[in-house]
């Protein structure tokens, strides 16, 4: 396989369209046409990670965090970012980063945290806006089935646990072609009326290019009439954070100790304990202070995240417990998630979980 084929698999699972605007995702270093000898899967890409890739004959590093986050104006090796990139280039090692595209994926980072905690009835904490669109097109009745199937095969009409969803109305369309036209039905220069089906389907925004391609290739008309609208509906299967429930209630301290053990946290910083049992748990891997109010509004008993600042803890307002388990700790199982997904898709070369511990924080 070449690198691009691996990228296509990853991005089918976690489309880059849904990465946050501030992020830097995708292929950061390397040529996408290079044949892959092996892939090292890691949370972070550092010099030590590149050295591990060299030792294990991997010319592709699949990383959660991007080593290049803001612009690089020089490559002189003066800091760890430049040294890492230079080492990768010198050794013909490509670096790919997925980051917030995987954060927003329904079966991504936060679902993995929920899995480790044994949470049931999981839902996205902050459903993503502007990710659902609607296509309406008009097609002769006799060709409607063919067009619908073409749209469905591109992913249109999938809503949660259902697919092949559409709404259809039969009516009468009219048109008159000019001298340059080549109408499939009727004659140019004359008004023609045709029994048509109006087909309406919703779809995830990242599928639009293929859906339109299938529409145009299956539609019989010379000029295809269609409309596209962005919907205000929030995508309940895409977004930041998750919330779920424990099988049974548990004491606050006991639950925090379980979390500390599960995530191997050096310590857990938390807000005031409320002396109430924990049942409903909200999670957001990495820096999650922005979601505190969302966790409160969702009725969470505790919000597990990382990188909380001093004043963030006041936002608990004695309505829930805020628990900072550490950035690395909250996202450490992400590489296992990527490995598990890719190992089911690829058997032609070695997929290797990185051994390098990239956590920059240590505890006494």
UniProtKB/TrEMBL annotation:
Keywords: Metal-binding
Signal sequence range: none
List of residues binding a divalent metal cation: 65, 103, 327, 331
GO MF, one example: metal ion binding
Record-level GO cellular component terms: cytoplasm
InterPro entries: DUF34/NIF3, DUF34/NIF3_bac, DUF34/NIF3_sf, N-reg_PII/ATP_PRibTrfase_C
Record keyword Metal-binding present: yes
SUPFAM superfamilies: NIF3 (NGG1p interacting factor 3)-like
PANTHER family on file: GTP CYCLOHYDROLASE 1 TYPE 2 HOMOLOG, NGG1 INTERACTING FACTOR 3
Family recorded in the similarity comment: Belongs to the GTP cyclohydrolase I type 2/NIF3 family.
Assembly, per entry: Homohexamer.
Protein name listed in UniProt: GTP cyclohydrolase 1 type 2 homolog
Native source species: Christiangramia gaetbulicola
């Amino acid at each position: 396989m070449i690198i691009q084929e691996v990228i296509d698999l990853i991005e089918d699972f976690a489309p880059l369209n849904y990465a946050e605007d501030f992020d830097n995702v995708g292929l950061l270093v390397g040529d996408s046409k290079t044949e892959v000898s092996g892939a090292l899967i890691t949370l972070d890409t550092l010099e030590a990670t590149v050295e591990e890739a060299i030792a294990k004959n991997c010319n592709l590093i699949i990383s959660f965090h991007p080593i290049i986050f803001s612009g690089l104006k020089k490559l002189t090796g003066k800091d760890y970012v430049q040294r890492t990139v230079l080492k990768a280039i010198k050794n013909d090692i490509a670096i790919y980063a997925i980051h917030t595209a995987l954060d927003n994926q329904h079966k991504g980072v936060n679902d993995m945290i929920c899995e480790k905690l044994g949470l049931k009835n999981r839902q996205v904490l902050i459903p993503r806006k502007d990710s659902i669109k609607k296509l309406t097109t008009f097609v002769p009745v006799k060709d409607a089935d063919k067009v619908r199937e073409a749209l469905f095969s591109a992913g249109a009409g999938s809503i949660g646990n259902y697919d092949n969803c559409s709404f259809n109305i039969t009516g009468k369309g009219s048109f008159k072609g000019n001298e340059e036209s080549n109408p499939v039905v009727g004659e140019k220069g004359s008004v023609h009326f045709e029994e048509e089906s109006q087909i309406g389907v919703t779809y995830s925004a990242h599928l639009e290019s293929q859906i339109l391609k299938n529409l145009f290739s299956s539609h019989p008309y010379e000029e295809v009439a269609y409309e596209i609208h962005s919907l205000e509906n929030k995508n309940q299967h895409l977004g930041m954070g998750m919330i779920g429930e424990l099988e049974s209630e548990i004491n606050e301290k006991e639950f925090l100790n379980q979390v500390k053990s599960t995530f191997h946290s050096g310590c857990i910083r938390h807000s005031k304990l409320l002396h109430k049992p924990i049942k409903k748990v909200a999670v957001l891997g990495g820096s999650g202070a922005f979601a505190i109010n969302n966790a409160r509004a969702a009725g969470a008993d505790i919000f597990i995240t990382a990188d909380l600042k001093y004043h963030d803890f006041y936002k608990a307002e004695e309505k829930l417990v805020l628990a900072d388990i550490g950035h690395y700790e909250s996202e450490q199982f992400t590489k296992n998630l990527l490995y598990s997904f890719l190992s089911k898709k690829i058997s032609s070369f070695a997929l290797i979980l990185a051994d390098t511990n990239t956590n920059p924080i240590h505890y006494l």
